[in-house]
Amino acid sequence: MSAEWTVLGAGSILPRVGYGSSGYALRTEPGAPVTLFDCGPGSIRSLASAGIAIAEIERVVLSHFHPDHCLDLFALAFARRNPSLASPPALELIGPRGLAAWLQRGAAVYGERNWLVFERTTVREVDPRADAGRIACGSFELSWTATDHTPEAVAWRANIDGGASVTYSGDSGEAPAVARLAQGTELFVCECSFPDERAVAHHLTPSSAGRLARDSGCERLLLTHFYPEMDPETARRGAARVFTGAIELARDGSRHVLRGAAARSDA
Questions:
Q1: Cα(266)–Cα(262) distance, rounded to whole angstroms?
Q2: 7 Cβ contact partners less than 8 Å away, ≥ 6 residues apart
Q3: Interhelix angle for 72-80 vs 99-107, to 10°?
Q4: Is 147 helix (H, G, I), strand (E, B) or coil?
Q5: Alpha-carbon dihedral of residues 37, 155, 236, 52, nearest 10 degrees?
Q6: pLDDT in tens, 17-67
Q7: Residues 6+ apart with CB under 8 A from 121
Q8: Burial class, 81, CB count within 10 angstroms (exposed 0-12 / middle 13-18 / buried 19+)
Q9: Rounded distance, CA 60 to CA 192, Å?
Q10: Which long-range contacts (CB under 8 A, 24 or more apart) does 262-266 make?
Q11: What are the angstrom distances between the C-alpha of 182 and each of 89, 214, 242?
Q12: For residue range 72-101, what is the model confidence (pLDDT) as tens digits?
């Protein structure tokens, strides 16, 4: 019973075919509810092609509050109020400190209409600097660390029952804490925004993403969050100069199987 990581958006806020704003979906086994990791513009629209219904989403986990990672959270709130969902399922929203206040400010845009207010929803905030934090989420457990992309930005790791694991960098610079979070992870989903020769502070390039993957000892590296100037194949070649493990490339709609410890040992 393999878990699956589905890419809803593998790019940036800048328009580019096949590379929408950041959004990912985790199913821990076929037919299980879905957890979204980030929810940038276009994520909700991409659910249909990924075979995911609004009613299947039980949780959204945010890395930070930049619009390209979170703006469709309000689209999800509006979708859950649609009359076709007579009783929307319970939902959990997890993110850095300030999440509840951010949700309130966004909902206030429509005033008394309440179109963007979440119903049957619990909100959990984490301290980016907390040590050894853990959140139980049914069939998996979340942990996190600060990335220093913004004061509240965090990377996330999901340890799934059966031994599978996935670590998502969110937006990050070359932070040693992110490599430690991803230590031995099966799949390291790592941003790779810009070419090495056009590096931007608090983002990763092929070389720096490769170094984080090497230092983490991950089994597989999944490069994502490509800006238009970052050609994915060039990113793969650059990361491969540093990291010798398997490297995969994210694209909108790509699916990446997490097999778990037992399946990997049998392979």
A1: 6
A2: 23, 24, 224, 250, 251, 252, 253, 254, 255, 256
A3: 70
A4: coil
A5: -10
A6: 999 999 999 999 999 999 999 999 999 999 999 999 999 999 999 999 999
A7: 90, 91, 92, 93
A8: middle
A9: 22
A10: 262/162, 262/163, 263/2, 264/163, 264/186, 264/219
A11: 31, 10, 17
A12: 999 999 999 999 887 888 999 999 999 999
Name the one residue in this structure whose structure tokens are 């629209």: 45
Phi/psi class of residue 29: alpha, beta or left (left: φ > 0; alpha: ψ in -120 to 50)?
Answer: beta
One-letter identity of residue 165: S
Pair 59, 36: CB distance under 8 Å: yes
Pairing mode of beta strands 57-61, 91-96: parallel
Q: Is the pTM of this model over 0.70?
A: yes
- For 199, residues 6+ apart whose C-beta sits below 8 A from its C-beta are 205, 208
CB atoms within 10 A of CB 157: 20
Tell me the H-state helices in the chain. 43-46, 67-70, 72-80, 99-107, 176-181, 206-216, 232-240, 260-266
